[in-house]
Amino acid sequence: MKLQKLIIKNFRGLKGENNIIDFSSSNIIFLIGLNNVGKSSFLRAYEFFINSAQKANTSDFYNYDINIPIEIEGVFLKDEYDDDDDELAAASKGKGTDPDWIKKWVDENNFIRIKKIWTETNTADKFTFSPETDEWVLNGFGGMPSLFQKHSPTPILISAMETENSLEEKVNKLIQDEILKKLKDDYGEDLNELVTGVKRLQQKIADSEIVTKYNEEINEYFKKVFSDLTLKLSPKDDDNIKLEDSFKKNHSVTISKDGIDRNEVFTQYGHGVIRQALYNFLTFLKRSREGKKKEYIILYEEPELFLHPEITFKLRTSLYDLADNSPFQVICATHSPLMIDISKPHSSLVRVIKKEDETTFTYQVGDEVFRSDSDRKQRIQMINRFNPHVCESFYAKMVIIVEGDTEAIVFRDLIKRFYNDYEVYVLNSGSKNNIPFFQEIFTAFHINHCVIHDSDTRLNKNNSINSAWTLNSSIWNKIVSANQIMDGMARRYVHVENFEIAHGITSNGKDKPIRAFNFAQGLQFDSDVPCLALLKDLLGDKIILHDNNYIEQLN
Length: 555
Hints:
Blueprint: E1 2-9, E2 19-22, E3 28-32, H1 39-50, E4 70-77, H2 86-89, E5 91-93, E6 96-98, H3 101-105, E7 111-118, E8 125-130, E9 135-138, H4 145-151, E10 154-158, H5 164-179, H6 183-186, H7 188-206, H8 209-225, E11 255-256, E12 263-264, H9 271-288, E13 296-301, H10 309-323, E14 328-333, E15 347-354, E16 360-365, H11 367-370, H12 374-386, E17 398-402, H13 405-418, E18 424-428, H14 435-444, E19 448-454, H15 467-485, E20 490-495, H16 499-503, H17 512-521, H18 530-538, H19 548-552
Parallel strand pairs: 3-14, 3-15, 10-13, 13-14, 17-18, 17-19, 19-20
Antiparallel strand pairs: 1-2, 1-4, 4-7, 5-6, 7-8, 8-9, 11-12, 15-16
Helix pairs in contact: 5-9, 13-17, 14-15
InterPro entries: AAA_GajA/Old/RecF-like (IPR041685), Bact_Antivir_Def_Nuclease (IPR051396), P-loop_NTPase (IPR027417), TOPRIM_OLD (IPR034139)
Pfam families: AAA_15, OLD-like_TOPRIM
Domain Endonuclease GajA/Old nuclease/RecF-like AAA: 1-113, 115-340
């Protein structure tokens, strides 16, 4: 079963019912947001949810308040492989079986909804949603803990501070789950010979002098009480000797340096190498088992930690590749825009925010915004090539979108000198044509944003309609739409015709950036110029209104 959606209420740092991540069109999700908004709580929540015997501690409840229940719901997609699973087909339920589990718990879209609720520091009540009755049923499929845990994707946490011991523990678990399941198929004959040999050895030991002596001594006092009974130590009459268990937790991970004939100590290389070793073991599994059946979820805490930027870029590429056509789904919590490539398909960004009352919300953006058609895909690829730092804007509280280099230079300088205490990111969109695209992204993320652009002229020099003029209405319409979603999310200001004309700057084109810098450096806080007036209004009373009516009367 593939995890389709995870809904979390009041777990650790996550408050309220608006904490949702959706894998419907994604195999990899990056959680972004400020510190202490609950990103790591998302990673821990799936582990918490899947564990069949998980008990809640006081610290697991939001604000340590056990009167506010923890509620986690998982929506799973039954895939084609589940139909052929004998264990699922005869799902155990009490002393009987539930061969019709698909009819009972799987809806018309092939979704299974399972919910767990912790009301005190104890194990959870488990519910399954019944499509037949349209109600949550206590236990149900979710009440078969071993079955649910086995067939839902297994969590693999790569935490920020992995140790050598935690690395070995996780590697052994993966070996147990992945490699040993093939042991009987690939080495069945060898296993049978070993099992026969073990049985012969057991019998020899049972018939040995020392065991015979043990049996005599054990019965010396036992028969004084039960004279007609005899105790005897002997091998179990068990044909199901699990010799493969001897391989479990029996693997260590060592590291050595090329050219030096000795094993090195992991700790001398640091957490970055340990985390990368675990990650590389996962990529090995991916190469050994291509396929779309999702069996694992990698929960990666800040992948960029302890890594050089060049290595970070390589890891980013590897992560996207790992999630594609493999047994893995991936959730990463990251503070680094270097980890994000918005041109990659089947990937999403989830912005996690915390309101003033501590309620947390998630806003997810994926293929529907970044790559919904070929034009958007080409635009994203172009933006990535010309401005690889564009993803920094997704971490901002407030974004000013400008057309090009001139405006970016001027507004960055003014903010640095006059509004340095404000958290404002100036995004150079590269072109007026790109502005509506960025508006959609920031609106989807619920990021406050302001567009500052040229009004341009209604007609070109040959009296044809100027396409740049027609963009004015498109930009304003998206401002209106954003404010309908969240009041005050978006604003728009214009420079009449263009920045240079509005400020009396002459330029031959090639010297525009340096002239813009010199112009900005010559401004004082009380200078009477349009750009400074607009910035003061944006970060002040917000009185100026540059709507479509204002632009239409310009020319």
